[in-house]
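Take a careful look at the sequence and tokenised backbone pasted below. I need to know what the token row says about the fold.
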Amino acid sequence: MRQPTNMSTGVRSVEWVRAQPGGSWLVNRMEHAYYSWNAPHKGGPQLTQLRSVGLGHVRAATSAKQHVKAKPWPPNIKPVFARPLPGEGIWKPAGRRSTAAHRRR
């Protein structure tokens, strides 16, 4: 409990209880009750766009030295809803680029 963290004391305390024998059951029951009482209303308007996450647009290699073999992406996912959002179900790179790519800049 006294280790440095960015979690609040309340959250840290709940996670401590969860780690105790039988604590997981207790916390799960409490969370289930809380989220059942405070559930969002069903329905409502559909989103108009997806949030942008990851690196965004990745630039292609410009010289023969910087040529990087592209890895195959998984196939796109068929949207579930009748009016899919722009870019929904299309794989895009996310996360940091490798250190080797940073050194070439």
User: Anything to note?
Assistant: DSSP finds three helices and no strands in the chain. The mean pLDDT is 77. The helical segments are 9-19, 23-37, 99-103.
